[in-house]
Structure prediction request, 259 residues.
Amino acid sequence: MALLELRDISKRFGGLQALARVKLDIESGTIASLIGPNGAGKTTLFNILTGVYQPDGGEIRFLDRPLMGLQPDRITKAGISRTFQNIRLFSHMTVLDNVLVGMHSRMHTSFAEILLRTRNFHNREDGARSRAMELIELTGLGGRQGEWAHQLSYGEQRRLEIARALAAAPKLLLLDEPTAGMNSTEAQSLVTLFKDLVGSYVEAILLIEHNMRVVMGVSHWVHVLDYGEKIAEGHPDEVRQNPRVIEAYLGAWAENAQS
Prediction:
């Protein structure tokens, strides 16, 4: 049984068919990539998975339970968390507070406990802070917890978004262009992080990524979208040699990689 199963997911915006009967499985213990040209429907698919959009048709099952119709907060509680293509941090909050915000879906403190500042409240606060510090260290931001988010470099802000997404304790982590704007060294360090996360902090990762060196270096499986349709899937070596994928997206990169 796959961790995540999508069957015939379709979405139309007016006259635009953003997704057309997309089928996709994500297995536990894997890192999968979703690639394709701009406008292929990749972020639309992420928005459907996280409840931002409702599909026009199809079925989504996560941990063998239906996901359709759930609001974003319920989907987060079910075990799916994400980052965004455009960074959405609280820029005038500290690194630590940004990560703590990501934990709200897992906090079960009552209003009375907060008001009375009970022992249970303090224990949970201490536990949350300890966990946040662990995630800050994990994502390479150790020692920066007291800085404002806007003081971080672009690459560091990307890492902070990942830490905040992990704070929700997801089983499936969705990453939308996590290495965008990074140099090759920064991108490679994230590849190492992603590999370390699977099996220790998450069960699987699905990422949208345009950096083909990252995709080919980190993925167990690659799914390819073009004009809202899935045109190919397979192991990285299979996908980069697929004539339809080369024509639609990889082009010169695939030719150079093979030479």
The longest strand covers residues 16-26.
